[in-house]
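ok, trying the design again with the full structure, not the truncated one.
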C-alpha cells in the first residue's frame, strides 16, 4: 500500500486538530501517518510496522483524539509503552495536540512515581491513560483504573515490551479490556510472539509496513573513529569542538557510573553537560531533558534505557562513546537525532577488538559507516581562534570601549610596551582554562579497518577467531524465554554448573505465583535477561531462584524492593530448602530453568518501570 498525501487536511482530521498541527509547525504527514490515520479513523484494528523516529506517535494519537468524548471524564483510550520515558513523551505529545481541545486530560502512569499522586489524578478523571504494563496491571488489580469506557487500545513498541519481558503483562491487560474496542499495535519488528498476540486479540487488522530499516538512518551522517593513540575523552573534546553545525548531543555509555564520570569531566572542560541514568528520580530526569530542550544544557550523557523516548529537536549529534552490544540498540541510539525528517550526525567510537560489531551494524542498517579522521591540533586551534575572533568582533562593535581603551594606553605607557603587546596579554588572560593553542604532538594515524578484515601476513595462515555471538549480530537468533515452549510443554532441566547463587523469596504457590511471574519480575525490575535466570523452585509459602554470581548492587537493591502479586519478595541468599511434612527435603514444583549464557551480561535498567 503506497499513499501520497500532501497535507493533513487530506486525512479527514477535524478543524481543531488541523489548526493545532498548523500552529506547532506540522505540514506534510510522514508515510506512517498518511497510511495509519485514515485506517484508525475508520475504527479498524491495525498493525503498524515502523522504526522509531518515523512519526508513529502522531499516527495513533491524532485519530485517537478524534474519538474522545470530553464530557465523559473516564479513560477512553489506553496506550501501553515499554518505558516511563516513552510514556511521558507520548503523554506530552497528546497534551500538545490537545492545545485547542479544552478540558482534555491525559495521564501517564509508571513505576517510580508515587501511587498517591497517581490515585489522586485517576480520581479526578482522565480521558487517556499512557502507562507501562506493570503499573497499569497494579491499578487494574487495585481497581483504581476502570476500563469499562475504553474505545481504543494502543500497544506502542510491542517488540521492545517483548524484549523487556512485559509480554505476559500485556496479554493480562488485553484480557481485561472490553470486548468492543479498537486496537492498534506498533512494532519495529514482528517476532512470532508478537504475531501470536496480534492474531489472538486484534480483529481483522489492517497491516501497514513502512520500509524504514534504512529510512531511520537515511538522514543521519554516520561515521566512526578508531580508538587508537589517544584517550577517548581527548578525542571526544576535539570532535565536539570541530564538528560543524553542532547544537546539542546525546553521548551514550554502557554504565550509570560512566554517565556521571564523563559528565563531570566534560563540565570541567567547559561544556554544559549532565548525566541521565536510572539512579535519577523522575523529577530530576524530567529536569535534565527540559534543560536540554531549552538550551541550558548542550550535552547529555546517557545509558540506553534512560534515553528511551527522548525527542529533542536540537539534538544534532549522537555519539556512541561505548559501542552498543547489539544492532537494535545502535538503531535506537542514533534515532535520537535525525528524527521525522531532520538531519543528524552519529559518531561511533570503535576499538580494534570491536571491528566485527561495526561490520554487523553496517549490515543491519544497510548503510556504510565512514571512518572519521580525528581533528588535528591545528584544526582545533583554528576553530578556537575563529571563535575568539568572532567574540572580539562583537565587542568591537559595541559602545562604551573608551574607558577600556584608556586603560590599555595607560598600561602600555607604564610598561613601556606597545598596545598590541597589551592586547596579546589580555587575550592570554581571556583563555582561562581553554587555551587557544593546543600543545603537544598529534597521535600517529591508526591503521584503518580493511573492508574485508584482512590480517597482517604474519597471521595469514591462522584460523580467524570465532566471533562472540553478540558481535555476529546473532543475539536475536538465540532462543529467548518468551520463544521457548511453556513450562508444561518441556521437561525440567538439571541445575547449571557455574557461578550461580541461590536466593529465597517470600512468595509461593499460596500467593498464586507462577514461574513466569518470578521471571518477569526479575527481568523487569533488576534488568537481568530471562535467559540468565537459573533454576526456580516453587513452594507453598516461598520460592528459590538461582541468579548469576556478582549481581550488581543496584540490581540486588531493586529486587529487595520488588513485589510479586503485591507481596514483598524479601530477596536473600538461601540457607536451605524447606522440609516437607515428613521431615525430609521437599522437592520444588516444576518450572526449573537453566542459565545458558554469559553470566556477566546484566542489562542496564532504569529500575522501577513496572
Amino acid at each position: 500500500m503506497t499513499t501520497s498525501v500532501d497535507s493533513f487536511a487530506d486525512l479527514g482530521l477535524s478543524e481543531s486538530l488541523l489548526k493545532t498541527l498548523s500552529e506547532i509547525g506540522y505540514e506534510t504527514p510522514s508515510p506512517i501517518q498518511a497510511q495509519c490515520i485514515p485506517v484508525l479513523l475508520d475504527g479498524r484494528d491495525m498493525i503498524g510496522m515502523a522504526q522509531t523516529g518515523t512519526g508513529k506517535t502522531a499516527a495513533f494519537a491524532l485519530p485517537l483524539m478524534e474519538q474522545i468524548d470530553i464530557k465523559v471524564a473516564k479513560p477512553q483510550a489506553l496506550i501501553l509503552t515499554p518505558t516511563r520515558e516513552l510514556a511521558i513523551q507520548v503523554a506530552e505529545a497528546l497534551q500538545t495536540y490537545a492545545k485547542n481541545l479544552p478540558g482534555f486530560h491525559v495521564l501517564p502512569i509508571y513505576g517510580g512515581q508515587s501511587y498517591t499522586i497517581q490515585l489522586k489524578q485517576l480520581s479526578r478523571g482522565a480521558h487517556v491513560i499512557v502507562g507501562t504494563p506493570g503499573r497499569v496491571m497494579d491499578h487494574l488489580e487495585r481497581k483504581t483504573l476502570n476500563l469499562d469506557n475504553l474505545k481504543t487500545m494502543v500497544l506502542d513498541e510491542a517488540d521492545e515490551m517483548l524484549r523487556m519481558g512485559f509480554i505476559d503483562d500485556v496479554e493480562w491487560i488485553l484480557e481485561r479490556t472490553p470486548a468492543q474496542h479498537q486496537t492498534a499495535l506498533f512494532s519495529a519488528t514482528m517476532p512470532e510472539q508478537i504475531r501470536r498476540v496480534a492474531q489472538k486479540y486484534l480483529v481483522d487488522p489492517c497491516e501497514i509496513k513502512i520500509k524504514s530499516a534504512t529510512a531511520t538512518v537515511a538522514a543521519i551522517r554516520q561515521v566512526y573513529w578508531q580508538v587508537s593513540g589517544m584517550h577517548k575523552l581527548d578525542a571526544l573534546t576535539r570532535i565536539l569542538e570541530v564538528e560543524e553545525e553542532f547544537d546539542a548531543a546525546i553521548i551514550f555509555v554502557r554504565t550509570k557510573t560512566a554517565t556521571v564520570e564523563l559528565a563531570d569531566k566534560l563540565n570541567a572542560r567547559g561544556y554544559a553537560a549532565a548525566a541521565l541514568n536510572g539512579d535519577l528520580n523522575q523529577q530530576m530526569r524530567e529536569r535534565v531533558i527540559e534543560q536540554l530542550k531549552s538550551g541550558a544544557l548542550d550535552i547529555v550523557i546517557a545509558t540506553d534505557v534512560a534515553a528511551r523516548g527522548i525527542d529533542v529537536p536540537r539534538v544534532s549529534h549522537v555519539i556512541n562513546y561505548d559501542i552498543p552490544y547489539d544492532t537494535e540498540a545502535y538503531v535506537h541510539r542514533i534515532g535520537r537525532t535525525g528524527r521525522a525528517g531532520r538531519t543528524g550526525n552519529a559518531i561511533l567510537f570503535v576499538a580494534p577488538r570491536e571491528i566485527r560489531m561495526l561490520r554487523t551494524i553496517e549490515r543491519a542498517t544497510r548503510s556504510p559507516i565512514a571512518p572519521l579522521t580525528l581533528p588535528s591540533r591545528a584544526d582545533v586551534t583554528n576553530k578556537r581562534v575563529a571563535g575568539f575572533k568572532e567574540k572580539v568582533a562583537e565587542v568591537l562593535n559595541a559602545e562604551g570601549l573608551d574607558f577600556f581603551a584608556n586603560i590599555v594606553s595607560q598600561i602600555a605607557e607604564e610598561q613601556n610596551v606597545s598596545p598590541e603587546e597589551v592586547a596579546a596579554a589580555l587575550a592570554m588572560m581571556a583563555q582561562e582554562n581553554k587555551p587557544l593553542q593546543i600543545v603537544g604532538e598529534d597521535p600517529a594515524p591508526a591503521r584503518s579497518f580493511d573492508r574485508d578484515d584482512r590480517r597482517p601476513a604474519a597471521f595469514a595462515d591462522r584460523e580467524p577467531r570465532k566471533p562472540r555471538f553478540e558481535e555476529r549480530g546473532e543475539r536475536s537468533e538465540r532462543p529467548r524465554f518468551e520463544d521457548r515452549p511453556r513450562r508444561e510443554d518441556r521437561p525440567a532441566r538439571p541445575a547449571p554448573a557455574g557461578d550461580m547463587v541461590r536466593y529465597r523469596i517470600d512468595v509461593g504457590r499460596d500467593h498464586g505465583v507462577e514461574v513466569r511471574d518470578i521471571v518477569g519480575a526479575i527481568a523487569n525490575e533488576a534488568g537481568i535477561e530471562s535467559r540468565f535466570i537459573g533454576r526456580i523452585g516453587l513452594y507453598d509459602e516461598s520460592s528459590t531462584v538461582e541468579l548469576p554470581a556478582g549481581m550488581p548492587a543496584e540490581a540486588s537493591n531493586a529486587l529487595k524492593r520488588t513485589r510479586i502479586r503485591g507481596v514483598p519478595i524479601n530477596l536473600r541468599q538461601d540457607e536451605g530448602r524447606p522440609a516437607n511434612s515428613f521431615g525430609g527435603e521437599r522437592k520444588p514444583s516444576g518450572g526449573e530453568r537453566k542459565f545458558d549464557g554469559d553470566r556477566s551480561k546484566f542489562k542496564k535498567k532504569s529500575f522501577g518501570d513496572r
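Keeping the full-length input from now on. Residues 208 and 264 are 45 Å apart (CA to CA).
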